[in-house]
Each structure stands twice: as structure tokens, then as C-alpha cells.
Amino acid sequence: MHFWNIAGLTSENIKQETKMGEISSDVQYHIGLKKGDVGRYVILPGDPGRVPKIAGYFDDAKEMANNREYRTYTGSVDGIKVSCTSTGIGCPSTAIAIEELIKIGADTFIRIGTAGSLQKEVGLGDVCVTTAAVREEGTTQQYVPLSYPAVADLDVTWALREGAKKLGLKVHAGIGQCKDAFYTEGKEGEELPLANYNRDRWTAWYRSNVISTSMESAALFVVSSIRRVHAGEILAIIGLTYDDKPIVAKVGVDDAIKAAIEAVKILEQMRNPKK
After folding, report:
1. pLDDT tens for residues 48-68?
2. Any idea which fold 27-271 has?
3. Do residues 168 and 251 make contact, with C-beta atoms less than 8 angstroms apart?
4. 73-110: b or e for each residue (b if 16 or more CB lie within 10 Å)?
5. 63: β partners
6. How high is the pLDDT of residue 15?
7. If you average pLDDT over every residue of the chain, what do you get?
């Protein structure tokens, strides 16, 4: 029997509880949502505080649930039902969000996040559309062996790049590195037991033309691929990791949001050309 900490849930979903405090089986345990609460398209930021900002681009946006790191708004864009759910930081919580969103009807995911640049030509404020991820995290290894690639959906990736181009953004498409630990890079990690190992790994990614580093893409791509749904990612570059500066300025986030909104429109037109 599972019992729920309901402090963050909306009154609408709290009504799903029984008198004994047990959550309804219709409501997903972590995200606090049920079928009908979200659209097929879900935008996934990490930060719960960014959800209302993204929902500001929707028509008739409404908060559907707010529990733990998972905050969800649903509205529409050009008549298309669209939702936004925060995932928190890292692959474990991202995988949970995707699994539960799929169970209630979502099938297309666009992650909006921030990242550090691993290549000199990728500058602050640029946006990166991740085509695949280096699986240097632990979550996806509990799904499939490391020989299985973490690859974004082709249509979602194309739509994101086209959306960014339409807005005149400086956009890069390429492989991203996905990690679990933030404070192991650059000067922060120099005194760690694995400092030499980590330095060698960073050098390998620089030389392999990996363009960015963040913390959620591997789970996004692997879980979506296994579950046969569609996922892509667009990242705003806020740090220059190749220069030992993981965070410099929070720039480009609004651009990434706008490109994601454009991508939803493009995908819907591809899927329903007669509309």
C-alpha cells in the first residue's frame, strides 16, 4: 500500500484520495497526474520555477499538479494541447517523469535545459539541439547495456533545429555528454580521488566533438526509445566547460523555450498536414 505526501498536489488531484489517505490508482505516484491532465506534447525543464515561465507561452494555461520536483501546467499552442512538467536535476528523476507521463498519454517530449559548452565554436547564449548522448550516468544502465545508444528522435530533432533557425538563433546540433555529478569538472574537481581519470575523460569528449554537457539527456533518449515514444532536447549554453567555467551567465533560455514552442507547431503540422 502506497501513501502520498499531498502537500504539493492541487485540490483537483487531492480529491482522488480515499478517506484513508491512499492515493487513487488513476493518479501517477510522483507527478500527481492522471489521464487527461496532459497533452501528447510535454515540454520538460528541470527547474520547477521555470514551468510557469514556459506556460506563459501557452493559451489558457492551468496548473495541474505540484509535487516534489514535478510541477505541471497544461494549456494550448495554436489549438494544440501542450503541457510542461519539470523533472528536477539528473537522470533518475527525469526517467520517473517520462515513465509516468507516458502512462497518462504523453508521447512527445522536448527537454529544455542549460548546458556547458565543450567546443570553442559553441558560445554563450547559443542553443544546442542534442542528437545523441554520451551515457556517463547510472540510470540508463539499469535499463539497457551501455552498448545501446542514447539517440534523440529524428523528427523531434529536426523540428527543434528548424524552429531555432526560423527564429534566427545560432544553433548547433550534435552529441552531448550526460553525467551524474556536477562538481567534478574543472577546478572544482582537482582535489578529488578521480581527478586524473575525470580530466582524461573530458579531454576525450573535447577531441570527440561532443558539443555540450548536461545531466538529463541520456534518460530522456533511452527511456523514450525503449517505450517507443518521441523525444528531443534543446539546451541554452550558459557555461564554457572547455575553459573550466561551468557557469558564466544564464543566457539563451528564452530562446530555447521559443524554439521548443515552434517545434511543437512544426511537429503537429507534420503529423496532421491537412489542419
Report:
1. 999 999 999 999 999 999 999
2. Rossmann fold (3.40.50)
3. no
4. bbbebeebbbbbbbbbbbbbbbbbbbebbbebbbbbbb
5. 73
6. 46
7. 92
